C-alpha cells in the first residue's frame, strides 16, 4: 500500500501540486489523467521517489521514503519501484538482455541469476528472439516491451509509467495495454500510469483526474464513485 500524504510542490512562485493526498491500492492499475500542465508527471515523479516534495510525505507500507538519505533512497527505489517512460530510455550500447538485467545486477544479483531472470522476462514478453539486439535494432513496441521487462526485473512493489504508449502506433499501443493488464491479472502487479490515451484509461481499475495541481475526481471502474 502506497500513501501520498499532503504533498505540495512548487517551482519558484508556481505551485504545481496543492496538498495532494492519494492512496494507491495494491494489485490495481491506476490511471492519472488530465490536461497538459495539470501536474501528473510531477506527482508521478514524487510518488516514485525521483523528486522530493516541498512538504508532505510518501509512505511505502511503513516506510516514509523521503526520510531516507539519498543513497538509501536510491537503493529502496531500485528494489521496490519500476519505471517505464514514454521514450524507453534503454542504454543504446547494451543489448535488450543486458538492459533488462541491469537493475538486478545493481541490486546485487550475481550475473547468472540476473541474466536468467532477464531472459525469462524477455521470453514472457515475446522478445526471446530480440535478446541480443541493441535498442537501435528493435521496433518502438519491442523497445517499450524491453523497458517493461527492465521495470519488472526486481519484482517491484509498484511500476510507475509516464505515457508508456505515447510514442507508439495503435497496434503497439494495444499490445502494451494487453501486457500491462495481463501483468495486473496474473502477478497482481500494481501500476500507476499517466496517460492521455482513453484506451489506456479503459484498462484502469481506478482513474484519478487532475487539473491545476489538484485531484478533481477519483473514479473506480464500473462503480462511478467520485470524490
Ligand atoms: N523542473 C521544472 N521547473 C519548473 N517548472 C516545472 C518543472 N517541471 C514541471 N514544471 C511545471 O509544472 C507544471 C506541471 O507539470 P507536469 O509535467 O507535472 O504536468 P503534466 O500534467 O504531466 O503535463 P503533460 O501532460 O504536458 O506532461 C507545469 O506548469 C510545468 O511547466
Summarize the structure.
Helices cover 35% and strands 27% of the residues. The strands form two sheets. A six-stranded mixed β-sheet has the order 6-7-8-3-9-10. A four-stranded antiparallel β-sheet has the order 2-1-4-5, covered by helices on one side. With 227 residues, the protein is α/β, with parallel strands linked by helices.
List keywords for this structure.
6-stranded mixed sheet; 7 helices; 4-stranded antiparallel sheet; alpha/beta; Rossmann fold; binds adenosine-5'-triphosphate; 227 residues
Write the layout of secondary structure elements.
Blueprint lengths: L1 E10 L2 E11 L4 E5 L6 H8 L7 E6 L2 E2 L5 H11 E4 L11 H11 L4 H14 L15 H13 L5 E5 L7 H18 L2 E5 L3 H5 L3 E6 L2 E7 L7
Parallel strand pairs: 3-8, 3-9, 6-7, 7-8
Antiparallel strand pairs: 1-2, 1-4, 4-5, 9-10
The site of adenosine-5'-triphosphate has 10 residues, from helix 1.
User: Beta-strand percentage?
Assistant: 25-35%
Order of helices and strands: EEEHEEHEHHHEHEHEE
Q: Which topology does CATH recognise?
A: Rossmann fold
Quickly count the helices. Answer: 7
What are the segments in which pLDDT stays under 50 over at least 5 consecutive residues? Answer: none
Corresponding CATH superfamily: P-loop containing nucleotide triphosphate hydrolases
Q: What general outline do the C-alpha atoms trace?
A: globular
Structural category: alpha/beta
- Our measurement of the CA-to-CA distance between the termini, rounded to an integer number of angstroms, reads 20 Å
Please outline the major beta sheet: 6 strands, mixed
Mean pLDDT: 92
User: What's the number of structural domains?
Assistant: 1
Q: How many DSSP E strands? A: 10
Task: Specify Rg, calculated over alpha carbons.
Answer: 17 Å
CATH C-level name: Alpha Beta
Query: What small molecules does this complex bind?
Result: adenosine-5'-triphosphate
Instruction: Please state the second-level CATH architecture.
Output: 3-Layer(aba) Sandwich
Percentage of residues assigned to helices: 25-40%
Biggest sheet strand order reads 6-7-8-3-9-10
Amino acid at each position: 500500500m502506497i500513501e501520498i500524504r499532503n504533498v505540495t510542490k512548487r517551482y519558484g512562485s508556481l505551485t504545481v501540486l496543492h496538498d495532494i493526498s492519494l492512496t494507491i491500492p495494491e494489485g490495481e492499475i491506476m490511471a492519472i489523467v488530465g490536461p497538459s500542465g495539470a501536474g501528473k508527471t510531477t506527482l508521478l515523479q514524487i510518488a516514485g521517489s525521483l523528486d522530493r516534495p516541498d512538504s508532505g510525505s510518501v509512505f511505502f507500507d511503513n516506510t516514509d521514503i523521503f526520510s531516507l538519505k539519498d543513497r538509501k533512497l536510491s537503493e529502496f527505489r531500485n528494489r521496490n519501484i519500476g519505471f517505464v517512460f514514454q521514450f524507453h530510455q534503454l542504454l543504446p550500447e547494451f543489448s535488450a538482455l543486458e538492459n533488462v538485467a541491469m537493475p538486478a545486477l545493481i541490486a546485487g544479483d550475481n550475473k547468472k541469476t540476473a541474466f536468467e531472470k532477464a531472459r525469462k522476462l524477455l521470453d514472457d514478453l515475446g522478445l526471446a528472439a530480440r535478446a541480443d539486439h541493441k535498442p537501435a535494432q528493435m521496433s518502438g513496441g519491442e523497445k517499450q516491451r524491453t523497458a517493461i521487462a527492465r521495470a519488472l526485473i526486481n519484482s517491484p512493489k509498484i511500476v510507475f509509467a509516464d505515457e508508456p504508449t505515447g510514442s507508439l502506433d495503435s497496434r503497439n499501443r494495444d499490445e502494451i495495454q494487453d501486457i500491462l493488464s495481463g501483468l495486473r491479472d496474473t502477478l497482481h502487479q500494481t501500476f500507476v500510469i499517466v496517460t492521455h490515451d482513453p484506451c489506456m484509461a479503459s484498462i484502469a481499475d481506478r482513474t484519478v483526474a487532475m487539473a491545476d495541481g489538484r485531484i478533481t475526481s477519483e473514479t473506480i471502474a464500473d462503480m462511478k464513485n467520485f470524490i
